[in-house]
């Protein structure tokens, strides 16, 4: 049986899975319902059965309390997504069911096991969100080769899709629940992220809500209804609002039939009205785009091309705004599929690179160094040869190297002029040529004879050297043990290493005795390994439909 590896776009509203076939072509695999994307909606149907996808989305109308959508917005931020049958479910567990649905459906279609995957996440996802995404994959029983940013995946697909000279592209990615703008320099050899920004609360769902508000007002004025819309009416309106929005991408006007509390109305919505009621939302995306372009300019990059990804870029208002503002006609790149396809191309590269890094005879847990990053892999996962080799899917036989940039700043709490401040060590948008970045800074101990020092690590979007302390940005804490006899101001070197997956490792050296002090990050948003294993076992007992 041919061995394939997969790319999964775990989207806020829709998910999609792709693989690279024997001819080197990235191909999306349809789900059991025959569609190329699967709604990221999970309905807990019974204690041992979960329904995922279109059926769950429809079930949301009749069973709203046991149905959850937009779970991606909770990843790494909360340990609670929904309570079912008296049990709290985490966002990782819920996302694992979405991953299982797309993976198991694809496995059936291709008559193979879907095991090795690259999963995508928005570029601005920080350590906790990326780790949560990876843990969702582990809970789903997958071997997560890597987590990569959605725009990087889209650019990888775009890069493989055609031959080209070096250019700077802006990826405008407006999905169902998130907005990402990423600027990258792209050539046949290399894809390098220049900078990225985004708003994880802005997406197609907000356009749906604007339509819902409009429909509700029109319904009230037409029928005289003066009650509250119950949950059923709201879910119904949500489905109809999204449908109307999508139809308005190809039509000038659409009718919407609404029923609530025994009343009925036919509401007409024009594209002009739709554009008017959603103009502030689009404005927010354009403002972020402006800010990213300004950062790229400072670094010496001018935009040659704008690339649209994400289902919501189908709205004509997006192209219109970009043309009006930047005088450039953006290119639409298979908005629903580009990210998953790029992820599958990356999966082939990662699998083959991991394979090459193994020593003959390696088996079980092994440490390998790939592109300057050391990682733990299970050698047994890489025994099989792939059905495709990277050279078959690249331009002129060359494989494109992906150079990512930091998507967050990482700081440590210090005393600056006797004031507690955060001092940035790694700054957002720094290039990571080897896939990772290591930065060290030396600080002095505050007092004489300290037994230890507490490192409080912050993750934020601030790009200044120092910024004010804000508890909201605490990533975690770590304790450095000290000999206990050091004078005040004794030098301590702090080293932050950010790996390819955006996960931070912290270490320190007491420079007086040269003793290495190891610090383990205890991030508040990150699930403990034992819990991940426990959920993985539990997930196996659940049937996903
Ligand atoms: P994604 O997360 O990239 O799959 O994007 C999903 C979002 O794209 C959802 O909010 C969809 O309603 C929206 N979408 C899909 N097709 C269209 C369309 N034809 N016009 C407008 N929005 C669309």
TrEMBL record:
CDD domains: ASKHA_NBD_HSP70_DnaK_HscA_HscC (cd24029). GO terms for molecular function: ATP binding; ATP-dependent protein folding chaperone. SUPFAM superfamilies: Actin-like ATPase domain, Heat shock protein 70kD (HSP70), peptide-binding domain. The keyword Nucleotide-binding applies. Transmembrane segments: none annotated. Keywords: ATP-binding, Chaperone, Nucleotide-binding, Phosphoprotein, Stress response. Acts as a chaperone. PANTHER family: HEAT SHOCK PROTEIN 70KDA. Belongs to the heat shock protein 70 family. This is Chaperone protein DnaK. It comes from Peptoanaerobacter stomatis.
């Amino acid at each position: 049986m041919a061995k394939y590896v997969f790319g999964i776009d775990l989207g806020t509203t829709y998910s999609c899975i792709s693989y690279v076939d024997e001819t080197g072509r990235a191909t999306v695999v349809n789900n059991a319902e025959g569609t190329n994307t699967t709604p990221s909606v999970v309905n807990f149907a019974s204690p041992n059965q979960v329904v995922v996808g279109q059926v769950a989305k429809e079930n949301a109308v009749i069973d709203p309390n046991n149905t959850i959508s937009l779970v991606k917005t909770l990843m790494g931020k909360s340990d609670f997504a929904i309570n079912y049958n008296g049990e709290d479910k985490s966002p990782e567990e819920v996302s694992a069911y979405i991953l299982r649905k797309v993976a198991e459906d694809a496995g059936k279609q291709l008559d193979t096991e879907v095991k090795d995957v690259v999963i995508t996440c928005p570029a601005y996802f920080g350590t906790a969100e990326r780790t949560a995404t990876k843990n969702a994959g582990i809970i789903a029983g997958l071997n997560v080769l890597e987590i990569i940013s959605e725009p990087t995946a889209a650019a990888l697909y775009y890069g493989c899709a055609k031959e080209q000279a070096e250019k700077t592209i802006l990826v405008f990615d407006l999905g169902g629940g998130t907005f990402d703008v990423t600027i990258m320099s792209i050539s046949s050899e290399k894809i390098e992220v220049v900078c990225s920004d985004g708003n994880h609360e802005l997406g197609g769902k907000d356009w749906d809500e604007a339509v819902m508000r409009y429909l509700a007002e029109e319904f009230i004025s037409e029928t005289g209804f003066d009650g509250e819309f119950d949950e059923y009416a709201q879910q119904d309106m949500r489905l109809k609002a999204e449908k109307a929005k999508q139809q308005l991408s190809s039509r000038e006007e659409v009718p919407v039939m609404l029923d609530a509390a025994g009343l009925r109305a036919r509401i007409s919505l024009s594209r002009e009205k739709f554009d008017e009621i959603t103009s502030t939302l689009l404005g927010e995306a354009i403002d972020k785009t402006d800010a990213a372009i300004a950062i790229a300019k400072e670094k010496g990059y001018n935009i040659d091309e704008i690339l649209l990804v994400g289902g919501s870029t189908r709205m004509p208002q997006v192209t219109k705004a970009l043309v009006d503002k930047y005088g450039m006609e953006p290119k639409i790149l298979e908005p629903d599929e580009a990210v998953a396809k790029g992820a599958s191309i990356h999966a082939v590269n990662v699998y083959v690179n991991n394979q090459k890094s193994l020593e003959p005879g390696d088996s079980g847990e092994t440490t390998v160094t790939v592109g300057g990053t050391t990682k733990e892999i299970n050698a047994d996962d890489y025994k099989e040869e792939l059905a495709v080799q990277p050279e078959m899917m690249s331009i002129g036989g060359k494989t494109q190297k992906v150079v990512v940039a930091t998507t967050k700043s990482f700081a440590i709490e210090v005393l600056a002029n006797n004031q507690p401040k955060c001092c940035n060590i790694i700054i957002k948008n720094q290039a990571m040529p080897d896939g990772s970045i290591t930065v060290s800074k030396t600080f002095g101990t505050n007092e004489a004879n300290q037994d230890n020092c507490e490192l409080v690590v912050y993750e934020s979007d601030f790009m200044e050297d120092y910024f004010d302390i804000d508890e909201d940005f605490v990533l975690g804490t770590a304790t450095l043990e000290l000999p206990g006899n050091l004078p005040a101001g004794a030098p301590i070197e702090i080293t932050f290493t950010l790996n390819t997956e955006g996960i931070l490792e912290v270490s320190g050296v007491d420079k007086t005795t040269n003793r290495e002090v190891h610090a383990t990050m205890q991030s508040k948003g990150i699930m403990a390994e034992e819990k991940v294993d426990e959920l993985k076992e539990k997930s196996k007992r659940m049937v996903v439909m």
